[in-house]
Specification:
Blueprint (H helix, E strand, L loop, with lengths): L4 H11 L7 E10 L4 E10 L2 E4 L11 E3 L4 E4 L1 E6 L1 H4 L3 H8 L4 E7 L1 H7 L2 H6 L9 E6 L18 H8 L4 E7 L2 H4 L3 H12 L3 E4 L6 H9 L4 E2 L5 H9 L3 E5 L7 H11 L6 E4 L5 H7 L2 H10 L4 H7 L2 H6 L17 E4 L9 E4 L2 E5 L2 E2 L10 H4 L23 E9 L6 E11 L2 E2 L7 E7 L8 E7 L7 E4 L8 E5 L2 H14 L2 E6 L2 E7 L12 H17 L7 H7 L8 E3 L4 E3 L4 E3 L6
Parallel strand pairs: 1-4, 1-5, 6-7, 7-8, 8-9, 9-10, 11-12, 12-13
Antiparallel strand pairs: 1-2, 2-3, 5-14, 14-15, 15-16, 16-17, 18-19, 19-20, 21-22, 21-24, 23-24, 23-25, 25-26, 27-28, 28-29
Helix pairs in contact: 6-8, 12-18, 13-14
């Protein structure tokens, strides 16, 4: 994004009428998020950037394009997301988000970096200059998320983080968990200092913090958070000068909570941005991307210019890139959405850096096919054979039942709460309890390092038969599997091993559905987004055969073992109390 002398001189000459612009978009209504106005205007473009928005400008242009009275608004910015959670590679992602008007993804590659380490950033950016959208890097900090509490494939050192921070595409240090500050080590604090000292912000992940802890967390230089579930949590962040990222993902639906309370109580949206965080590609196709956030906010009562500003100029200012994008003003990139309505935004055309990239329902650029390196495609290895016996949990001697502390899932959220239950014991083994909706859950180490299999129980998944498994478990990315019997759990994990990563549903020992994810065991190599959509929908339907009624079963499954999401996190090494970052016993000693 660095300016050049030649580019800047050319823009000035165009603005003075000395040389013609490449084209002018006319007969449009400009949504100006800087002045908060909508008015008739023309947009003159030279190269990648806007020269003028003066409706009366006497500038010349090589082409005139009639916009038929449509609204022109800036391209949308997703302020925080993970490509791995969408299961889609950067090349195919264009087909999903560009038609929805998203021209910038602020992407944190921590998921796949936990598998492969820092080199994955260069791999993900290989075709960045050919994509019809922008990838703005949030440097992964949680690689690993919880050292000593999980087995991961790799780490990112201070030196490696510093190198990524120096890249032109980088806009921030990615979300940093509270434990890395409240239970700090110098390397994590150094990463924060490096980011701030080079003029880049630090993203937050302040889930589970008390107000005093949040104050200490913010004092380290953390500028935002996307993990507020209750209004009081959001208000705490605003009071401490942090930006709130209003999230609408596949399993995390926080927008109605924030918008309804802010409107009712009269709070400003000035320090807010929109993000998806974790959104499956089929949900993007069905309901939208950041345009969905904007449209939902408008339906709840936010005025359209404010909603559009949250998705554009607010984010650009927060990431300190508003000199380049976030508004339709001179000198900024020509990232333009043309649409008929600003109350239900469905783009008819999308322009990115001066070129038309979407029109008449089609992404107007060539699909990019590539072969990913073998080292990123061969990441699932088992230290020992995976058998049903590995999923059996012995009870203390002489017990006919045991009391356990387990995670209980919360609807439409990734956080869970501690639940105490009594489970039966049969033949010396702790058993599931379908009557309480309690099923067995396990994390299987998949890097071939130690062969760990952590066996636990979870309440609230609504599974009744069979097993489901996924080679994404935030953020260590070991295999997570939940099942009604040990044999199906074993079969599901073994199938993931054969595929080198993916999603699996097993019923009565038979694989009824599977979806390969060979890029780091997390991302599909499929070049057609529509095919990935079909596969995910088929997997969700297969989960229904098990009795599961969750709207995003595999997304939910992947968050159960997340050691930075309260309250409990089962990992391959033990049951983690997220607040204390300590192991606790699942079975109560009596």
């Amino acid at each position: 994004m660095k300016r050049t002398l030649n580019e800047t001189n050319t823009l000035i000459d165009c603005g003075l009428g000395k040389i013609p612009c490449d084209y002018v978009l006319k007969n449009l209504k400009l949504v100006n998020v800087c002045s908060r106005e909508i008015y008739e205007a023309k947009i003159f473009v030279k190269g990648k950037r806007i020269v003028s928005i003066d409706p009366d400008a006497s500038l010349t242009a090589e082409r005139e394009i009639d916009c038929d009275g449509m609204y022109a608004l800036p391209g949308f910015i997703d302020s925080h997301m993970h490509l791995s959670s969408s299961m889609i590679n950067p090349e195919a992602m264009a087909q999903a988000i560009v038609p929805k008007g998203t021209t910038t993804l602020c992407a944190d590659f921590m998921e796949i970096a936990n598998v492969t380490g820092a080199p994955v950033v260069d791999v993900m950016l290989e075709n960045a200059d050919k994509l019809p959208y922008r990838i703005a890097i949030e440097v992964p900090t949680r690689v690993p998320t919880a050292p000593g509490l999980e087995t991961t494939g790799n780490i990112i050192s201070v030196e490696e983080a510093r190198k990524i921070l120096s890249m032109d595409a980088t806009v921030s240090l990615g979300e940093i968990a509270p434990a890395k500050i409240l239970h700090r080590t110098d390397d994590n604090i150094q990463k924060i200092c490096d980011s701030l000292n080079c003029g880049k912000i630090v993203n937050g992940h302040a889930v589970g913090c008390s107000y005093q802890e949040l104050s200490a967390y913010a004092s380290a230089g953390i500028t935002d958070d996307h993990e507020q579930v209750e209004w009081e949590e959001a208000l705490d962040r605003l009071r401490l000068g942090m930006h709130v990222f209003i999230r609408e993902g596949s399993a995390e639906r926080n927008l109605p909570m924030f918008v309804e309370n802010a409107l009712k109580l009269g709070y400003s949206f000035e320090n807010t941005c929109f993000c998806t965080d974790d959104k499956h590609v089929h949900d993007i196709e069905a309901e939208g991307h950041i345009n969905h956030n904007v449209n939902q906010a408008i339906k709840l009562g936010v005025d359209p210019i404010t909603a559009i500003s949250i998705a554009t100029i607010n984010a650009a200012k927060h990431f300190r890139v508003d000199q380049d994008y976030g508004s339709l003003t001179p000198g900024r990139y020509a990232d333009i959405i043309l649409c008929r309505s600003i109350e239900d935004i469905q783009p008819e055309q999308v322009w990115f850096e001066g070129r038309k990239v979407f029109e008449e329902g089609k992404v107007a650029v060539e699909k990019i096919e590539r072969t990913y390196p073998e080292w990123i495609r061969d990441t699932v290895h088992f230290k020992r054979p995976i058998t049903p016996e590995l999923f059996r949990l012995p009870a203390p001697a002489g017990k006919s039942s045991v009391t356990v502390t387990i995670p209980e899932l919360i609807k439409d959220q990734i956080v869970n709460k501690k639940f105490t239950a009594t489970l039966p014991v049969k033949d010396g083994l702790v058993m599931r309890d379908p009557a309480q909706d309690i099923m067995k859950f396990a994390i299987v180490e998949r890097y071939g390092k130690n062969g760990n299999v952590g066996v636990y129980f979870v309440k609230g998944f609504t599974l009744e038969r069979g097993a489901v498994a996924y080679s994404m478990s935030h953020n260590h990315q070991n295999i997570c599997v939940l099942g009604a019997n040990d044999e199906d759990m074993s079969a599901a994990v073994n199938e993931i091993g054969r595929m080198k990563g993916g999603l699996v549903t097993v019923i009565d020992g038979k694989v009824i559905a599977k979806m390969p994810l060979t890029i780091g065991g997390l991302i599909s190599e499929e070049v057609e987004a529509k095919n990935i959509v079909k596969q995910i929908l088929a997997m969700n339907e297969s989960a229904k055969v098990t009795g599961c009624t969750l709207p995003a079963p595999f997304m939910t499954l992947s968050f159960i073992g997340h050691p930075a999401v309260p309250q409990l996190a089962p990992t391959d090494m033990g049951l983690v109390d997220v607040a204390t970052q300590q192991f606790i016993s699942m079975i109560h000693e009596e």
